[in-house]
Amino acid sequence: MTGAIASAELSYELVVNGRHHDVNGALAGESLLYVLRNRLGLPGSKNACEQGECGSCSVLVDGVLVCACLVLAATAVGREIVTVEGLAGPGELSDVQEAFVENGAVQCGFCTPGLVVAVHDLLGRLPDPSELEIREAISGNLCRCTGYGRILAAIDEVRRRRLGELP
Amino acid sequence: MASSVTLLGHAVERSEDPPLLTGSARFVADLDRPGMLHAVFVRSQVAHGLLRSVEVAEAAAMPGVVAVFTASDLPLADLPEWPRGEPPRAELGRPCLARERVRFVGEAVAVVVGSTLSAAVDAAEAVTVDIEPLPTVLDPLDALAERAPLLFPEHGSNEVLRQLTGAAGALDGSEVVVRGHFYNQRVAPCPLEPNGAAAWPAAGGRLDCFASTQAPFRLRAAIALALGRPEETVRVVAPAVGGGFGAKGGVYPEQLVTAALAERLGQPVRFVETRSENMLAMCHGRGQVQEVALGARRDGTIVGLEATMVTEMGAYCWRGPVPFSTSRIMATGPYRIPKLSLTSIGAVTNTTPIGPYRGAGRPEATAMLERMIELLAAELDLDSVEVRRRNLLAPSEFPYAAPSGASYDSGDYSAALAKALALLGYEQVRAEQADRRQSSCATELGVGIATFVEISGSGSEYGAVRVEPGGSVVVLTGSSPHGQGLATTLTQIAAGMLKVPISTVSVVHSDTALVPRGVGTFGSRSGQLAGNAVAHAVEEVLEKARELAAVELEADPDDVVQLEDGSFAVAGVPSISLGLAELARRAGGPIGAEWDFAQESGTYPFGTHIAVVEVDTETGKVELRRLVAVDDCGRVVNPKIVAGQVHGGVAQGIAQALFEAVRYDESGNPLTTNLADYAFPSAAEMPAFELGETETPSPRNPLGMKGIGESGAVGAAAAVQNAVVDALSPYGVLHLDMPADPERVWRAVHEGRRDGQDPFSSSS
Ligand code: FES
Ligand code: FES
């Protein structure tokens, strides 16, 4: 269970959304998700399973999409971490977030932060994914509310916007 | 009213979304307080047994542990049975922490409070629970058998509910009778956010409780009762809630214990379930055995229905009575079934307690009827569309008194069926199916239809509207939205009727300190009940404004009209007008009104869903190719929000039909306790849905609305199930229980090849 694995206390620095954060007195076994949420005051990444099955904790570490619940925080030292809180400036929405609003892709919103991070990752890697590639790419992000259809529509809209196919 | 409400019917974007998208919305697990303690429950690992002892000394002495409580140190009243208008039966009460006996794996036995979560988790593992195992009973029919192990020996039986509807002889006069034996399987609601609660002592002796709940007022009443405090000294807030689907509508032992700990320890306490705990401790849904006979004349006209529905209650008769009674109420669905003879039974078993889950009884009733219609059509060698057409209620028959006692408000069921068939291109799909069957292709095509009606929006809800002198409009609702977009819907209603910009309207909800009373969000009730409460309050505000304007304009109130810009003027003199905010300023304070809107008999949304599947008869894999859903929820305020509700419900229906089932081993150990073992579908498994609608206003509320939160799950599961059976009909398969997973399908194909009989059904 969280933090129970090792009792040695660690101090280290994490770079999250471009900001340096000191982590003091952490246990070696603490996951990145735990540290983000409980030590750094960044609860945007969600914990819906802590077992790597739902994707609601998705963050980018050095540009790679990971489940923050499966990554030990101490292994992310010296890497660039991006969470949902860092996708747009304060009070702003990224193009992906805008498209989620416009397409009705949000219901309860618990899966949403992880999904938004995953979609940024997908379209960053693959600017013109097929529908199948999109479905596969977000198949690690579970959503109980939407049936995924409106999320796929939002992703497609961002894809077309970025490719200049939409105004 | 309707013509002036210009904002109604528009796909306004949800104001709820930005905080959810940026991660700034706060859910229970995101709430922090200085000195927050963490509660972790010790749970039974035995399905049925006598609780000999709970040793807590070692755990209590561990570092970081604040306290450990068992039932004897933390006496709390039992959770009541679901109120059914009958006196509670004390012997069936559900304890907050188990006493003397445990009845399911996952039942809370003790609670550890730690200064950190990890300290509490470690200490919980150090609590020793000594349980003397008893024989378990898992299947509801086994539970009803003579000499079955009893969960409540004082009650004398595992049968905890029994209700008879109609009279014997429902099949008399039938020329043909078809029979079915179905199991509507147990599923897990799996909201993405697990259950959680946090509580702390606040100023003035008040206890503040934050919970992931659909019904804050219900929880407040339960906490007050459990702790013996006046309700005014308890505040319940539902912060952002990550899905509920009915499962978060009830009061959970863990919520009451968390509140009791905060009161007892005088410190903030938080409890958040892990996913595995969620799969054990949150109610499961469905779980109904159906023994059915449908009688008809040779032309397909239904004569009567005889059925026994055995609803699993799980370990306690707690929230299971909701699906028990709703499946009873909706037992004859959209059809003209003159005679009903229904026996409804509730049985306790050593499993997680059952509760309402999206549809809560309507999906069970619908699947039963839709399977029977198909069996009847097969028996008579008719197209099942024809059988449906002959028996669907006609628009002229409303209001319709169903044999169950339900009073249907309005409907045009055949219109929804026709529209769905047209959207699908029914004839073409049947032609394709015929071609496929001619060929030697191993992949069969199946078409499944479900025509259904369901019930929504019973009871009452509170609403209030206040126009401030500064021009802002505050709407209060007693409902407790958690993803449905209700704040946006209510904003549209208020802004539309007041004729003010939507940006001036804010909606307050889910906090018992800010809203005087209310019920909550479940049973597809909030749009229509909260919406009509707000609409009525707005009308009163407009009436007050007109009277104020009359005084200011020195006119008769009857001569004052509201202009298109929302201001008030004397008819024919639009140049001198006063806006709402100006009127509030001149009146020296806000113009407000409140209303409780009641709709005791509910409304009856309906529709037709059609599924097309491909079944690989060599692997048993089912591919859902198309899902057409035509829904009628009366008047629509926001089509985008309504479509979202249909999408979500349909997805959950498909999930039940094809993938999901809660499973136990023979000793009652759950086998589906995480999202890897439980087949929660991802985007890779869901097709695009094709939606259509008809609009038949309800006469039971001024806005003409019906609910839409659950219809998707009511229709889609039955449609997909019918499609799979249809695909397998060349193999002699007449019925297949859900989920149609590859093993079940493969076995049906192979058994069917051998003897033309479905091994999973006794239907004839
Ligand atoms: S919380 Fe990390 S995958 Fe579910
Ligand atoms: S919006 Fe609720 S889980 Fe995705």
Describe the structure.
The complex is a heterodimer of chains A (167) and B (764). Chain A contains 5 helices and 5 strands, in the order ββαβββαααα. Chain A has 167 residues and is an alpha+beta fold. In chain A, a hairpin with a 2-residue loop joins β3 (58-61) and β4. In chain A, strands 2-1-5-3-4 form a 5-stranded mixed β-sheet, with helices on both faces. Chain A has helices at residues 32-39, 95-102, 112-125, 131-137, 149-162; strands at residues 9-16, 19-27, 58-61, 64-67, 80-82. The longest helix of chain A is centred in the C-terminal third of the chain and has 14 residues, at 112-125. The two termini of chain B are 54 Å apart. Residues 1-5 and 754-764 of chain B have low confidence and may be disordered. Chain B is an alpha+beta fold. The chains are: A alpha+beta (167), B alpha+beta (764). Chains A and B meet through α2, α3, α4 and α5 of A and α1, α3 and α16 of B.
- CATH domain class of the largest domain in chain B: Alpha Beta
Supply the helix-strand structural class of chain A. alpha+beta
Q: Low-confidence stretches of chain A at least 5 residues in length (pLDDT < 50)?
A: 1-6
CATH topology of the largest domain in chain A: Ubiquitin-like (UB roll)
Please bin the fraction of helical residues of chain A. Answer: 25-40%
CATH topology-level fold name of the largest domain in chain B: Aldehyde Oxidoreductase, domain 4
Q: Proportion of β residues of chain A?
A: 15-25%
Query: What is the count of β-strands of chain B?
Result: 28
Separation of the first and last Cα atoms of chain A: 48 Å
CATH architecture of the largest domain in chain A: Roll
Q: Structural class, judged by helices and strands of chain B?
A: alpha+beta
Overall 3D shape of chain B: globular
Helix content of chain B: 25-40%
